[in-house]
TrEMBL record:
One of its GO terms (biological process) is glycogen catabolic process. GO terms for cellular component: cytoplasm. Its cofactor is pyridoxal 5'-phosphate. Belongs to the glycogen phosphorylase family. Its EC number is 2.4.1.1. This is Alpha-1,4 glucan phosphorylase. Keywords: Allosteric enzyme, Carbohydrate metabolism, Glycosyltransferase, Pyridoxal phosphate, Transferase. One of its GO terms (molecular function) is pyridoxal phosphate binding.
Amino acid sequence: MKLEAILAELTEQTGNDAERLARDIAHYLFKTQGRTLAAPVEYLFEAVAWAVRDRVMPDWHATWQRLKRQPTRRLYYLSMEFLIGRSLAAIAFNLDLAEPLREALLVLGKEIEAIEEAERDAGLGNGGLGRLAACFLESAATLALPVMGYGLRYEYGMFRQAIRNGYQVEEPERWLRQPAFPWELERREYTRKIRFGGRTHHYIDPETGRFYVHWDHAEVVLAVPYDIPVPGYRNGVVNTLRLWSAQAPNEFNLDKFNEGDYFEAVDARIAAENLTLVLYPNDASVLGKELRLRQQYFLVAASLQDAVTQWLDHCGPEWHRFAELHCFQLNDTHPALAVAELMRILIDEHHFGWDEAWRLTTRVTAYTNHTLLPEALETWPGEMVRRILPRHWEIIVEIDRRFRFSIQLRWPDEPSRQERLAIVSSDRVRMAHLAVHGSFAVNGVSRLHTDLLVTTLFPDFAELSPGKFTAITNGVTPRRWLALCNPGLKTLLDEAVGSGWVTDLDRLTALLPLSQDAAFRERFAAVKRENKVKLAQQIAHEGGIKVDPAALFDVQVKRIHEYKRQLLNALHVIHLYDRIKHGETDGWTPRVVIFGGKAAPGYAFAKLIVKFLNNVAEVITKDPQTEGLLQVVFLPDYRVSAMEKIAPAADLSEQISTAGAEASGTGNMKLMMNGAITIGTYDGANIEILEAVGEAHFFRFGLLADEVQARRTDYDPIAIVQQDGALARVIGYLQREFFNPFEPGIFQPILDRLFSPNDPWLVLADFASYRAAQEAAAAHYRAPARWFESAVRNVAMSGRFSSDRTLIEYNQRIWHLAAIGEPARSAT
């Protein structure tokens, strides 16, 4: 019997009906795990996941074989983060298995919700960057685009956030213990060797006269790949996310062990595995910075080796077609070393001349910039790069030398241009400059962000290569961020406009007339109310705080950072509290303010903001005068699965970064898509949300980006406080330590920052405008017909924020991929 026939028979036997799903779940539980239905829920989850994965495998295998049989242009997406969250519900939804799986578990006496809750969020990312990458992979598969993701298999996520006495406490997040991660397949046959340290030797072949470089490395680490399937929406296409795990070439030094030196015997293994041990190691120390650099090189070296080896295995040395069939997308600055690594592979291993290698490298590399913040535009000390990656240092220096010469030829009378554009400056490597110079396309992630890239961050590069820059606004997948996380709204939308919106979100514009329909608004409001009740129950369960679902749910959940201005929100909360204390509650809008987010372990001021938010929340929530009027909640350990519950329940979406600081945002899109109304600055994708829904359905405030730049030159926060009585009362609470009576002085750094004329985020400058916008939002909420007209309109106009649209634009402008199957289409 031929293999193809055996595989076909196995596929037929698997089946997608409830009966066969139940049989397979029982098989894995009893015969593979040796357990019964009384086993702990994590084992039940694992059995269910294996049964679902069985249904992925035929399409995954077929997709891989299709790509092997017929060379086609492929996109390799390099990212340090892939925040995929939980996979069971998402994969089952895309395979149309949700209902059969529910029925199968009922046959076994179990409920699907308990099984889904047992899955841990994959600790492969931290924020918007990683969530965007996950959305892109799902949309690529749904659009049948041949896209392969490359990332790192972190054993520990960033950390699990606990709150103790108001402080953030970082606990290890070993997400891989579930007891296992059932979605991955170890592909040890594709293991790659990654080199670090050592020195280089330069020589000329006496026979050919060619110049060669040999990298005599001091250390080798194995990159072992683990593949995760990424199924499209019911179209038979399953792309791959390949994650690299670091391992030592040898488990341990047997000689050292036999000599009794047990610790040194395993030193090499521990050092190697540290590379992928933790997502975002604290880089406050030199050792932390070195580990971060090693992680970044480990990712790009393993991924490029893998892509090149696949090419040589399938097509042989037909290098003239390599650029035609390959594109490497760098997701932010972290993978910028790919430019130097591909040059090394071409020159040192395949004996390309410099010019030929550079032409090929710059034809296949594209770069997405995600931030204007200087600290995120990484630079590495020359000493560190020379020591860890000596060959790459030489290549980067040569790239810089040739680039400087070309700048001199272009602008012979402007020597300052060389320094502004330089890749190596003051013995530091500017990774963003390397990425821009080494790429054929550079994109920002919103229209304003791209404008600022061209005018403020990379103006000289834009003048040198004006056609290189383009704007592609971010998006999120509507499958997870609406259909899956908000089933009540999905049902309502299906009845109103048909189910085709799941893969064509623009169809939701058909809701616009219904925003004027009182009966539809009431049904929409009932769905929102149900979602708020569910979130309230979770808040009560996790935090012991009972919140009122009838109140305005005012939500700011995102990474804790000064530019995101959680402090501005907190000052407004104190303003509301002050009004309550002064009896100014006529026409009051009850409000529940919900914060969530993690502060980076090495970011002391962000961690102080977490403490401040928790202290404010504790005082206000415990004050009997606030009952029924104002509650403040900090949800610990914000993650993807938490956002899946928060987004459907949110009423007001806080997007209040200083204008010009937020590249795009994706949380704003998720909340809008689920019917929250945005209160926000004219920044990032907020601008495009505002354009989509209109001024009447968006609460805009604050300085514009150009006004921010001008204001920084004469910013006087003391004068602002003196001229604003409401703000002065708010500041008074901080000055008399109202929220920290037993912890004197702990919030003085916050006061110092707020009063500093050098505060780059101008928190106090926007307070009055923010307060006015909040008053408008509160009044709007008190008129339910107007509020839900705005809420429905936000859902209706969310089509442009689908990651499907984003991927289509990437493909049209940068990637130029041909579909390898039929793009998904929903039933109408």
